[in-house]
Amino acid sequence: MLRSGSGCVTAVLARTLRDALGPEHCTLFISTDINSRAVRATQATGSANSILHHEILQADLLAPLLPRLLHSVDLLVFNPPYVPTPTSEVGSHGIEASWAGGKDGREVLDRILDSIPNLLRPQGGCMYLVAVNENLPEDICARMREENLQAEVVRSRKARNEVLHVLRFIHA
């Protein structure tokens, strides 16, 4: 999990997996966020939802975890800062880090895309990514196909003033 925000997505995922697989199944969740307030919120949400195996790090994307996660991620969920903004807003530690995506809303997203084939477990590792029209979702899928991943837009939905897309990449 990247950019944990409040930790709600992790909590829903953890509860869903616990219900589907049973409480004896051990799933490790790793959340990162560059914002210390988001890290604290994720910790509180995880505790309130009894997520037992949850590592929460204040970090820029997955930088400190890359060697550890090499070819071992079963599921990666990423809701990047995707709003097109001036480049100067990208990478701050303030609240704008939650939405500031830079040119085409892709500056943060593009930094992680090259790592995906090396993170996902061969034969079935999967990533879900949230994007908007301005991020050029079909271009993202084409780029991931060049990395020999199955890539598709699995859901699109209008939400207020933006069209959200959920993209899925699978290591085949």
Automatic annotation (TrEMBL):
<comment type="similarity">
    <text>Belongs to the eukaryotic/archaeal PrmC-related family.</text>
</comment>
<keyword id="KW-0539">Nucleus</keyword>
<dbReference type="InterPro" id="IPR029063">
    <property type="entry name" value="SAM-dependent_MTases_sf"/>
</dbReference>
<keyword id="KW-0489">Methyltransferase</keyword>
<dbReference type="InterPro" id="IPR052190">
    <property type="entry name" value="Euk-Arch_PrmC-MTase"/>
</dbReference>
<dbReference type="GO" id="GO:0032259">
    <property type="term" value="P:methylation"/>
</dbReference>
<dbReference type="InterPro" id="IPR002052">
    <property type="entry name" value="DNA_methylase_N6_adenine_CS"/>
</dbReference>
<dbReference type="GO" id="GO:0003676">
    <property type="term" value="F:nucleic acid binding"/>
</dbReference>
<protein>
    <submittedName>
        <fullName>N-6 adenine-specific dna methyltransferase 1</fullName>
    </submittedName>
</protein>
<keyword id="KW-0808">Transferase</keyword>
<dbReference type="GO" id="GO:0005634">
    <property type="term" value="C:nucleus"/>
</dbReference>
<keyword id="KW-0949">S-adenosyl-L-methionine</keyword>
<dbReference type="GO" id="GO:0008757">
    <property type="term" value="F:S-adenosylmethionine-dependent methyltransferase activity"/>
</dbReference>
<dbReference type="GO" id="GO:0035657">
    <property type="term" value="C:eRF1 methyltransferase complex"/>
</dbReference>
<dbReference type="GO" id="GO:0008276">
    <property type="term" value="F:protein methyltransferase activity"/>
</dbReference>
